[in-house]
Amino acid sequence: DAKTTQPNSMESNEEEPVHLPCNHSTISGTDYIHWYRQLPSQGPEYVIHGLTSNVNNRMASLAIAEDRKSSTLILHRATLRDAAVYYCILSGESGGSNYKLTFGKGTLLTVNP
Amino acid sequence: DGGITQSPKYLFRKEGQNVTLSCEQNLNHDAMYWYRQDPGQGLRLIYYSQIVNDFQKGDIAEGYSVSREKKESFPLTVTSAQKNPTAFYLCASSITRRNEQFFGPGTRLTVL
User: Fold this and answer.
1) Given A46, A56, B10, B20, which residue has the most CB atoms within 10 angstroms?
2) With an 8 Å Cβ cutoff, is B89 touching chain A?
3) pLDDT digits over A11-58, tens only?
4) Which of B42, B97, B103 is the closest to A105 by Cβ?
């Protein structure tokens, strides 16, 4: 399975933008990049996903490098409710595993008031 | 409201007992999944089902069993063969296996 590398933790101030990086140097051509987040003692929540082009939705933006070996989740204005563990995950057709979300330890985002 | 429900939220069992965790969804999703999460760790896939009456083992299926008799329901049984069953169990569903997954609130199982 293709692996991702994320910083263990990051800090931000409320109402400032946050850029959460993810490296995935072994990504294959058919792998999608997914982001989920998890608040303490809750189930993960889908944030965004993309394949090659940058993506935007109401929660966040996903910027994907041209070589697809890295990506960045952008929260445009962090709020206290954005404090969570953010997971960057690859899933794709390789080996028939495109259902599979392999969760690493993620990045713990702390938002300061 | 559409969503995924898991019950109970907290569950305590004695060692050696089988226990069944409930997962129900009213999202009309074909695919359902069970994950396990240990403290400070990511999620690991136990079992998944793409359609009724079909399910496949995930990465850590040993000591667990599932059934998928109805589209809405995907119960997980933690058997006495599971060596370290105390964990946070999460159920998820998706329209198909290629779509984003929606997670339930989880069941925290403690085996005494």
Assistant:
1) A46
2) no
3) 999 999 999 999 999 888 888 899 999 998 899 999 999 999 999 999
4) B42
